[in-house]
Design goal:
Strand order of the largest sheet: 1-2-3
Radius of gyration: 21 Å
Amino acid sequence: MIHESGLGEVVGQAEDGLHVSIDQLYGVDVVLIDLLMPGLDGIQTIKKLRAQGFTGPFVMISQVENKEMIGQAYLHGIDTYIHKPINRYEVVSVLKRVADYLSVASSLDSIRRLVQTLENTKQPTATNHEPTLEQKARQLLLVLGIAGEAGTADLLAIIRWLFEQEQQGRSIHDLPPLKELYAQTLQRVYKEEPLVQKEIRAMEQRIRRMVLQAFTHLSSLGLADYTNPTFEHFAPRLFDFEEIRLRMQELEAGEKATKCRINVKKFLTAFYMEIKNG
């Protein structure tokens, strides 16, 4: 399909994750990978190659439909998921979008290098500062259409707490129950336990309303344009995609309320991973 559609060149292949390493990926733009493989599965292989320094996109092709497994794949760095049996149109469409993304990214990188060169010429002692985690979080809030929600301050406090947990060597993939997470975040503001307990409920409601707004915003984008890059990137990473599809059907039917189940813990974890790795 790649050759016939003029999308590029297949430069190599491996039977499983054990037989591929960063040394074989020099000059490779995209890796197509299965989820279930002997030796090392797709997620383990992605983690290995990322640790070795590969920064290109991964497109996963698999017959697995388990939402948790697919969600884990997105959390660990895949860019797109294609279900088997393979549909030619879908494969070609996905790879064309990935190619367009790489082209735009390359152009932006060239522009950044040019601007940096000009700035260094004018101001030899100037230094470039990486955006802080909070700045990245605020930018993502804008993208998700929730920058004005009451829960944004709560979310930023949780982001700071998660960052500190990682700094102490704890895994953010093993979050405590949400009420405990909210309590630990609030204990930094309120010293008296009764005040913490009183505020937990309010914080829980603010966070849930904000996450629901992001959920509906992404569903609306997908309903208007299924190939919208914001929808394509964030919908499956922040939410269970089956629930996103259900919400799109509800919106199409004109239903304002939703019966969809929203995994707030997944949203918080994925949001943090996005701004950390973005």
